[in-house]
Every structure is written in structure tokens, then in C-alpha cells.
Design brief:
Layout (H helix, E strand, L loop, with lengths): L1 E7 L2 E7 L2 H12 L7 H6 L2 E5 L5 H9 L4 E5 L3 H13 L6 E4 L2 E2 L6 E4 L8 E4 L9 E3 L2 E2 L1 H7 L7 E4 L5 H7 L2 H5 L3 E6 L3 H13 L2 E7 L7 E7 L3
Parallel strand pairs: 3-4, 3-11, 4-5, 6-10, 11-12
Antiparallel strand pairs: 1-2, 7-8, 7-9, 12-14, 13-14
Amino acid sequence: MNSAEIKFENKTIKGIWRDTADESVWNEIFKYREYRACDDVIRNARIIFDIGAHAGFFALYSKALNKDVDVVCVEPNEDNVNAMEANFKLNNVLSAIKIIKAGLVPRDGDYCLEISNDSHNHKVVNVDDRQSKKAYKLIHSITFSDLMSVCKCSQVDLVKIDIEGSEKRLFEIWDDVDWKGIKNLIFEYHNGHGTGVRLAGILRKRGFSASIYPSQFDKTMGIIFAKNKRI
């Protein structure tokens, strides 16, 4: 493990890197500011959902921009949850952030985590979709409506999603009530710019504006920032 430290918003943010995936996510968030499109939203937000929170770096980013915002981290992998807790403790925000150890899923059912070789590319899949040559762990799962209920809120100022390409399944299943609960949405898309265009199209049909920001390092990925024009 390696220790990281960076000056951000006149604050010193500390982190623990377990592997190159941690280092990459840290740099995406703090060094290259790939989520800067939602900075103003974060500064004025009351509650943020961080879906696929990994080691908690986006939550630290959000708390640095707005110390009073409530951040709810949803993460199914136990190792990542442990790393998240360590990073929050290191920055004295462990008691200020809610962690839910679960995977966000489109509908009720039995789900498992497809285990990758690093800490970042795990993927939630239905147990019926497992492939024999891959490793899996059964996980707790939660739908968006149940997450809203657990957090006792009817609207979320920002939903950040990084779930390795599974966001499309969520978007196709969410109903009007789910979408009306989201004021702003930012997420990482995968599999090329065409995928980003298709996902942005789904959001626009739901009444969102959608801006696409291709990654400067990997042409198969990028960020989409969307605002709900109906709220």
C-alpha cells in the first residue's frame, strides 16, 4: 500500500492506494478533475448518492467542496468498503458519511459480484447471468426506490454512478418516480463514444440535459453530466 496526499480546495486530502486502480481513480478525481462539471452542484447540494463508491475518493472530493453535504456511499465489495472506511477515518469524516454495503440493481432479485483482477472493475450481475469461467461473490442488493426510502428522502441533489457499464440497465428500468427523484446525475460511461451518445439520448428522453465529456486518456470511456429540466 502507498499513501497519497494532495492539496484541494485549501484542504489536505489524504488517501491510501492499495493498487494501481486506486491510484488511477484518485488521479481521475483529484488531479485531472474529471468530475468538475458537477462542482457547483456539489457546493450547493444537501444530499449526494455515490453509487459504486470504490475507495471513497469521490465522497472525499464532495466533502472538500461542501463540508455540510450528506454523502451516501453504495458499494458491494467488502474490500472496497474496508478501504473506504480507512480513507474516511484518515480524513476525519468517517462519522459524517453513510456507507451502504450493497450493489444498486434495477429490480429486486438475487445478485452477485463478478470479481475482476483489480479493485475497481468488479461488476454486479444477476445470479442467472453468471459465466462459468469467472469468479463471483453473492452480495446484498438494493433498488433505487429502496435506497431513497432507507435515506428518507424524496429527491437527491446529485447521483454519481460508476458501475462498470451497468448503468444502462438501471436507466431502462427506472420509472418516472425514480427519475423525478434525481436533480442531477453524473456517471462514467464505457465501451466508446457511441455508448455515451446512446446513454445521453436515454436521459434526454427523460427530460434531462446531457453533456458528454470523453476521457482524455481512454477513448472508450468518458463522463456524462445531466440535469433534470423538469425540476
